[in-house]
Amino acid sequence: MRSPDHATPAVQVLARSFAVLDVLARHPGAVPLKLISEQTGLHPSTAHRILNDLVAGRLVDRPESGTYRLGMRLLELGNLVKARLDVREAAIRPMRELHLLTQQPVNLSMRQGDEIVYIERAYSERSGMQVVRAVGGRAPLHLTSVGKLFLAQDDAQRVRAYVTRSGLIGHTRNSITDVSALERELSNVLARGSARDDEELELGVRCMACGIYDDQGLLVAGLSISAPADRLEDSWLERLRETANLISSALGHQRSPLPMDAVSQDSTRRVSGRTPNSKRSP
Fold it and tell me: Would the pTM count as exceeding 0.85?
């Protein structure tokens, strides 16, 4: 049963689900249904129904018939929460300074599945631009500058899988809705080390983005400047890059820049699925 210091949820099925998860958390290996039933006080049939739902949500795994353990989804969610807290804390002050320089919204975004989630924004009314997507808002990867940064990290097979899942649905006449065009765009993103959204998500709004990396060298977030289409200045890119690097350093990232020819070869390999010297099949 749940320890008495836990508040009891108002919804009974949630309370029972939490009790099941608590039992699984106390055991390093897979736990048989009978033991889960005994330690939660739930009838076996009730525990079984709850476990089936938790398995469907990937919160619980079923390694063998009749046994259960905590699922990888919990690890994914836990890492996502940790990353969001760490990144936001490191980013908020540099974001505000960049906003003061540009007088345009500065956005901090992270990938969640096939979408970008906006987790922080430095913004003021003086930018002259209405913010449509508030903190917590979402947008498809291929329509956003930060989303392109994440897609560019995927290999060709994962990019094609994303194309299949999303259908590359466009929001404006400028949206990239063709797989070949997307592959070329992602190759350019890797070569430049930055990404753009030229009125692809919203007409009248352009964005530029650079990546934020953690101590393992993994892309964990993107920093972007969004502005009215006629006000986005190319001169902001270097300051944006410096700010993203500053935040990355605060997360423990140590840069080891590749020569441009190595970056170009890497971009060819990631997006096309080929090594630079390989030949395309007829």
Answer: no
